Every structure is written in structure tokens, then in C-alpha cells.
Amino acid sequence: MANVLLTQKCVRSCPYCFAKKHMSSSEPDDIIRWEDLIYITDLLDSSGQRHMSLLGGEPTLHPHFIDFVIYLLERNFRITVFTSGIMSEKMLSEASMHLSNVSPERLNFVCNLNDPAKSPFSEVESIKKFMKIFGHLTSPGFNIYQPHFEMEFLIDYINNFGLKRNIRLGLAHPIPGVKNSYVKIDEMPKMAERLISYLPVLDSFRIKPGFDCGFPMCLFTDEQLGVIFKVIGPQGMKFGCGPAIDIGPDMKVWSCFPLSNFHKKSIYDFNSMDELMQYYQNLHAKIRIEAGGLYEKCDDCKFRQERLCTGGCLAHTLSQLHDEERVRYEEVYI
Description:
A hairpin with a 4-residue loop joins β8 and β9. 38% of the residues are buried. α7 (188-204) packs parallel to α8. It contains eleven helices and ten strands. The protein is globular and about 55 Å long. Helices cover 36% and strands 14% of the residues. The chain has one domain: Alpha-Beta Barrel (TIM Barrel). The protein has a ten-stranded mixed β-sheet, with helices on one face. The protein has 334 residues and is of the alpha/beta class.
């Protein structure tokens, strides 16, 4: 699956933003062109991939956002749109007219939700208008960037607006070479304890959270892993972190936002999505062998050796090596 950035523009500035480095080094008025979207669609189609995610910035700011979605639906692609839910009245009206009745088997939104107590009133009201129309197509997303956080508002949103009863949990990571907010390694146990405390509450409302990426397995105690298994099930016991292919408006590609300045390539360097994915899988594997994981014990961890855990986000590992002497494989360094 490819993540395609329609635009670099965004409507807010989150302190943990994964795209901060990428957007700061790109032209803010960069938007993807029709011919480039068609090229990407053809590449995925020829590679046998039928799912595309649309991102930004804020993807709904692209002047052809609705036309893009309709085109991809006509090409029989499944679409996931990652959005803040903050739209102009005009865009929301047009999106409601053309997209609100599309089957959830074909179109889904992931709405990145921040704590409304820490957000401007106007943003919160705009998000509520979006959820009122598109709640039935929307999964809430929540990024953890501090060891202490609140999740009650997510339950309220799910119940009040009919959102899907699952939460896409992200863990903010350091962006090598950039200052952003994220949970420091020594703060992770507190974060884990806070997260586990919410699981029985979410379970009582039949809400299942899912780990997006970057949660190392040994972050949790055996007792906590038992709670995760009980509430989320076997699918929640995944602690992997692999390449998520992002494609920018300039047709450059990289392996997930925290690594957007790490071995960035042109999409035209590859003949298929499989070839592109294999390139980053091989690169990540080589770095994992050389640089390990978050902790020293990752080196001989049986769960890492059995690929049940990858040792946390690669961005943490690379950040630890950012200022060291170049004594490792050259691929390790930015």
C-alpha cells in the first residue's frame, strides 16, 4: 500500500508532527499533478495493489481532492484518506454530496484527533461538523506524544458521531535532525502504564485500539501484555515497524515520515511497487543488524530474532547515532 501526499499544506501545526521535516524542506504550494497521480495509480495497478492512502499536509486542501477520489474509485481502488477533519464549508458540502454515500468497503477516513481541551474552539467545531457527516466512514486516530494523555474524548466522539469502534494508535517518534515532541525512551514505561489503564474502559464500550507502529514489545510487562491480548486479541500483539512507502507531490519516495530525509529516492528509480518496497526492506534490515533497536537487550532478544518485535521505531535508533562518529555502515547515517 502506498501513501500519496496530495499537498504539503496543512491547516494546523501539531507539536509531534511526523511530517515536520518533510514539509519544512518542501515548497508549501507543492501539490500533486493529475498526470503524476495517474502514473502512481498505474504503477500500483500493475503491481497488483488495489489500496491507496491519501495524505498531506491536509489532503482535502488539494483543489482536485474530490475528483481524485472519484477517479480512484472508478479504477476500483480502496481509498483511505488521512485527514484532520478540518475543512472549509464549501469543501465539506461538496464532499458530502459526492462521497458520503460511498460504501465503507471502498472509502474510509482516518481522522487524526487531538485533545479538544488543548485545541482551538474553531478547529473542534469544524471537526465535529465533519464527523457528523462522515462518522460512519471514519476511524479515529490518536497520536501519543507525551507520557500523560487523555482518551475520554475519543470515546465521546465514537459514541456521539457513530465513528467506527476502533482507534488507530500512533506513537510519536523523533525526526532525526529536527526538534519535535515525542515520548522519550525513559518516559515510555509511564506512557505504557497510562495506555494500559484505558484498555478495560475501551473494552467496556466495545472499542478496540490498534497499534500503528513503533511500540516495542518489551515496553510492556507480561501482565500488561495479557491485558492487551484480552482486550485487543492476537491482532494487537504485533510490534513490528516496517517501511511505509510515502510518495510526495514531487514524486520523491521515502520509508515513512520520521525518516523522510533518510535515503529519499525518486519513484522513477523503480519499475514496480514490489521493487520499491524491497529496496527499503533491505535497507531497514541492514540498519537493524548494524544499529539494533531501542535498547541494548534488543541485540539478543528472541522476540526480535523471531520477528515478533522489531525493537521500536527506526527513527529512535537513528537519532541516537546522529552525532556519533561515522564508524558504521554508511547507510546508517543521514
